[in-house]
Amino acid sequence: MKIAILSGSVYGTAEEVAHHAEKLLKEAGFDAWHSPRAQLADVQAFAPQAFLVVTSTTGMGELPDNLQPLYFAIRDHLPAWHGLPGAVLALGDSSYGDTFCGGGEQVRELYAELGICEVLPMLRLDASETASPELDAEPWLADFISALKA
Question: Between the chain's N and C termini, which has fewer beta carbons within 10 Å?
Answer without folding.
Answer: C
